[in-house]
């Protein structure tokens, strides 16, 4: 561009320059105070103050002093100096017929030199605990190491939020501040014994005092007073654990940093402190080739930058390792753009639906209905600890069955299943479903009354342990199916049903 053209388009060039600056920097710590992530130019002129060097001096000094710009940790003071309670463990390697060793993706990462070189610097547990292949022994030892170093723990990490909930249950078994006799893994015993340095009566008294309280609300912050956040996957079907985590953690920030699969890393959360329900992931264009097929339109496939805001897509992955245009099975909705890459929120797994007639109830529909039912449960001092559901067509008409595991908020409280409360939960869920369901439900010969079957406490832990032992899956990657038609799963659940409830009225149209 020559001088004449440059000077004749000064206004346009200046406007485009501001647009580019805001696209790149709207989510920086400084501008977010005024723009809250917006790139609107008029909002910039209205809200961002005119400043001098003294106003930005603290930020410049932070850069000069070498402060890292990590998008998560920069929000919390002292995180770099503390330790992480990380619930990680491995599964045994096994070989397929060709002789190639196979392991879950987390196990493969943990076995790398890259992981081993820095894990001991930030994690409360020694590598021997992380390398333990027994899930129960590993969790117990993770907790014990973190309790001994309770003042140093600044965060909790687990691949899925369900693992944190499972770990809290293990606190019931830690009383003496010493290794229990059932910890037989030699690596765990030797490495943890070094940290414990014998029985710790002071620690035992602290644990005993906290765990003997009637309520376990805020237990995480009570045991680890300097903890600042919990980092885990909390989207999709895992979002069912958010209320339980908030209860135990005294509503600490729940952070979901990235969105990934076994096939590839897909994106990162550039606003890690957002509310769980507002999480969107910015797709990384440099990890794999990504294409998107719009839901309900099998004829058109678009590239990463050509998706449309508000539309839902299934992801197709082509990576460096021999996967080409692979259907990931996740349905995502475009929420915006960060520069040119799109931002998505996770909606549901494809085909993760239940139906008994002509209606379709999706994972998203189910989670919304459960969130409304939780409000009813909490008013009665109960928490939903786990669930799954299936389409029961053994009856005429067919109906939805939900298996619920409940727990009293008070630690030693008894789960009292009031008929009025449980029937209301059934009705509230039906009212939350879509118009097609409600319409067919009002026709008595189409869909029958929704049923909740309450199972014994520990049922979903047993289900997890069953499939880990049968299939060799990793506990840190296990997810209870949100809906199922597996005869094996249903048989396990049915054997533990303690009460049944039905909605007593049809939902409004």
From TrEMBL:
Domain GH3 middle: 281-349
GO CC term, one of those recorded: cytoplasm
Protein name as catalogued: AMP-dependent synthetase/ligase domain-containing protein
Keyword Magnesium included in the entry's annotation: no
Domain GH3 C-terminal positions: 365-488
One of the Pfam families matching this protein, by short name: GH3_C
Family the UniProt entry places it in: Belongs to the IAA-amido conjugating enzyme family.
Organism of derivation: Microthlaspi erraticum
Alphabetized UniProt keyword annotations: Ligase
InterPro entries on file: GH3 (IPR004993), GH3_C (IPR055378), GH3_M (IPR055377)
GO molecular function annotations of the record: acid-amino acid ligase activity
